[in-house]
Amino acid sequence: MYIFFLIINLSISFIFYIFSNYIESVIFFIIWVFLFVYFSPFRVSRAKTNSKKANLLEKFNFNKNFFLKVVIPNIQKATYIIAFFFFYLSLYWISYSFSWDLFSIFTLVISFFLIVLFFYTLEQNNKVVFLIFRSNFVVYSLLYLFFYFYYFFLSKEINYIFVINSFLSIFWIICLLFYDKISPFFRRNLLYIYSLFHLFIFILFYLNYLFKIEFYILFTYLWMILSIIYFEYLPKIKALSIFDYTSKYFSIILNYIVLIYSMFLLFNLSHVSEILLILFIWFLFNIYIHYKFENYLSFSFVIATLILLYTKFFIWLEIKDFISYIIFIFSLPSLFISYTYLVKIKYINDNYFIHYSGLLFSLATILFYLFKFWDFDILHISILFLIESMLFLSSFVKLKKW
């Protein structure tokens, strides 16, 4: 592989020189020199025989075993990714200089060749082949992630070769997840997370390209569907069962991100019917997560969703008078506290979350009302704090039991 990439870069430099593209020729020659010097096997042998360098490491108290057994092997593996990156970058520049379609054809041929090599050596569990296949996948898939965004933002047309190449990236994901059992578990987890993200972008791109759906609707609804699949169904596939917790954590974290994005849309769009539906589904999903795993971050988002929907409803009503604000300030906290009296709560701490959320909401909205309308009438303030005191007393009576 080392000699192969040296030949590729030197050939490209020579081709650019023939066509009088001297800047590109010099760039690829510098890349060739870097590959030759940095990745040369002779450089490793010199390092092994150079006692002065070894003594220098000893002076700085380096752990030799750690350096030789962990650091160097990881650097060697990283060189494959760097090599593939330079390789595809070289192909891109050459193709761009002659014809854009050449690049897609080159990547298609390389992909088929590596897939055939992968399955031909599959039973042998050849570490080098797996490393080449995995490194090429990372660079190749990152490249097509870039193309997805490029075609999406510039609204460019795609050809059938691009489609085949992009579907091959999904095929590569499947191959690695199902057959690559050589890599350490931590690295396989990282690859799995990246694969889930890549699959999401892949589906998002093609749905948007084919159906021209508004981005915010497509993004939120697609992630809602994939989150449920990632969380509940992917871990049930036997080959992916080892990624059970990884899949769930990834799904939950992105669930929070998209939920926050949906909350932002709720207050920044004129038509919110689609957002109301997505928030309702996220609400149910987070309740399910909390009651199954006692996840209080999910439970916090459940309460936050209720408060935001409640607030949006009263904003839509355009309330202005004092009586309407009393209803707005105290209805939701009263419902929260009453719920804990009427329904048996599964987890004890839920009572505290529900009560304190309601009380904080009422206090915050009282202050908002007073300073927005500058209403410091003694009668109004007395009524507000009388009802607030009743809420606090009701909360105290209930929470004292625990």
Describe the fold and architecture.
The chain crosses the membrane at residues 6-39, 102-122, 129-152, 158-179, 191-209, 215-234, 246-266, 272-289, 296-316, 322-341, 353-372, 378-397. Keywords: Membrane, Transmembrane, Transmembrane helix. By secondary structure, the chain is mainly alpha-helical. Among the domains are: 1-98, no CATH class; 319-402, no CATH class. It has 16 helices and no strands. It has helices at 2-18, 22-38, 41-49, 51-59, 64-98, 100-120, 127-154, 160-179, 185-211, 215-233, 244-266, 273-293, 296-317, 322-342, 348-373, 378-400. Helix 13 packs parallel to helix 15 (348-373). The chain is elongated, with a radius of gyration of 30 Å. The N and C termini lie far apart (68 Å). 21% of the residues are buried. Residues 41-64 have low confidence and may be disordered.
